[in-house]
Amino acid sequence: MHKLVMAILVFSTMALSNTIVPNTGSDLKITIYNSNLSFVNDKRTVEVEEGKQKLVYEGVPKLVITQSVVPTFTGVKTNLFSQNYVYNLISLQSMLNNSVNKEIEYFTYEEEGKKVFSKGVLLSVSPHVMVQNSKSGKIYTLNSQTQVVFKQVPASMITKPSLIWNVETEAGGKLEIDLKYLTTGISWKSDYVLNLSKDTLDLNGWITVTNNSGVAYNNAQISCLAGDVNRAREVIRNRRVYKSQSSDMLLMEAVKEESFSGYHLYTIPFKESIANKQTKQIVFTKKEKIKYKHYGKSINSRFENYGEMKLIFSNIIEFQNSKENNMGIALPTGIVRMYRKDSKGDTHFIGEQRVHNIPEDETVKLTIGKLFDVVGEKTVSKYIANKHHRNVETTYTIRNQGKEAVELKIEENIPVYGEKITVKTSCKDNCSVKKKNAFVREFTIKLQAKEKYVFTSEFKVNY
Fold it and tell me: What is the rounded CA–CA span in Å between residue 133 and residue 107?
């Protein structure tokens, strides 16, 4: 019943005069979110006649969230009776499917190659086109789908996905339409490139916009919102997967950033066009001479009587996201790719890491990989445990087998239990210890090339 009502509504709408809403000279704004969601605000102007008519608003994406569509009409007083979203586009297959069980015209070939036109009922289009001749009643299988001749375009089909409004205007004149809607299929992400030298690094940040919505957006004001926007869960319809077919890169540091309702908004200060199935990159930040620290880190959270285990040190760089350090910007979620030049001046990729939204004045820590030349072991050198007491001593042996001095950190996470915890360590000289909280200690060891260091760490717990 619902389908019948919709069909009657569409066909009754088609009977009205058509007024195409042009997209030339429109005022188009797009806000793109991290979660494959975009908010589109498009303003267009159209000349309308007096009375009932059908407004056809072309260029609406296939992935539009129809429940979010909000049109506003100003200028000529207009009454809106119904709104339909039509996305049944014209194609050979859709025309054939629409003609099944209907009389169509088709042609066959005589021996001389002459076309012979006949009429018949289209019985099937897949896997073969089968037609029952209207005169003889015989059923023929056609060699090609293109042998079917169509007299007209079905009323339910259009050339572009469109919104169709059934309206009545009190007078002719200029009608302004302000359309707002949400759509999936347009996404953005940030990408970063770090070029490291001995003591400083340079950072380039890119906004990468990908349009797989099914339509192009021309001459649009584009903003990208960084942050996790809450969305209500609902049943997700089938989605098509597209591959990007083209890309564009804009080498311009011009993106404006502002805090906005608990998020960060990045606005491109010039209008841009994004074709369907296109990826576009825009530089949003370039920072140079950022001071950073380089060290290795290993975390120990196991204090059972397991004997000896190998120490593995992550290769980490760390810097302050502050104006004093030539930074001081909000860094949206993205992948940081790190590069460095060798002694010959050739650049090499040395690692990458995904980061989540980093506010201004926060510390940025990036893991490049694992240190190659730093090796070591941790050994449980004392282990006393009973029902109400535990006493564990760990001996750390670390060796720098490389040709350069290194700074190393060992983070020790003492098990969280007990009423009283006491700790002690033999860490001294080129080793220091920092209490991060009641259960976490961090040892910092500085080793010269080919240097070895051994120290112990002990805790006692009563519970």
Answer: 11
